[in-house]
Amino acid sequence: MLFGFSPFAVITFRTGIAFFLLLILMLIFQRRYFYIYFVGLIGCLLAGFVNGLGSILYYTALNRLDASIGQFLYSFYPLFLAFWLLIDRQTINKLTIFRLVLSIPGLYLLICTGFKAVDILGACLMLGSALLYALHLLINQRVLYEVPAPTVTFYTLLAMFATVIPSYLIFDTKQMISVNFWWPVLAMAVMTFLSRITLFTGVKHLGGLQTAILGLGELIVTIVLAQTWLGERLSGLQWLGAILLATNLLLVGFDKFTPEKRMTSGLLSWLNPPKIPSSDIPWQS
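^ that's the sequence the OP posted. Answer follows.
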């Protein structure tokens, strides 16, 4: 975006390139991963739509915030995921709740004790993005019980790409940027492709909330790159907040993972595949 790309161009090109890269690889090596049951497909498309909207909010907010502050605000998504889990009637253990509570003062220090004021609209957009990202994780967690991670990645990326294209066509008013400045977008596309597969693999094996909390490790990457590459700086109290979040990450080793199981009730129970009585299944099937 510092090179002149609009937020809408960034999200559209990085998502589109990542989707077509995955499509080509699946066509060549893993065509069997295209299969998905109908309700699972609807779930992936819904998750992709939700995350597509969240991505639009994220990059619009990032255009108004420092990268480090923006990522700190985005790191509220484990808290929002815990909220969605409670609505979906799933259990949360006590240590997980403690870790979520521990993250609140850390995030407060990072947001409110800096050298300059945080853009309020940008902050609200980033929190909205985190809320939608958490919901998309919960939806995909339901589908991943039955569907392989590459399949979920493919159809979720497809829906994301279809969601962000209109925003680029309608709201992008900037001219095309010189080809010399496209390398960050291409790098983001490759990272999106790799991170999406590993994300949904993590959700499949750990569950959405544990994956989200582990994902807070991206804060470390953001802080280091924002300081060394973009020249951003944190105050002393902001570093204290970063230490609290780092402590949160270390506690993951003591947390107990809830075994993954199909939920028959809750907000997203409709995403489960239909039940077929065993007496109705022919032997040859």
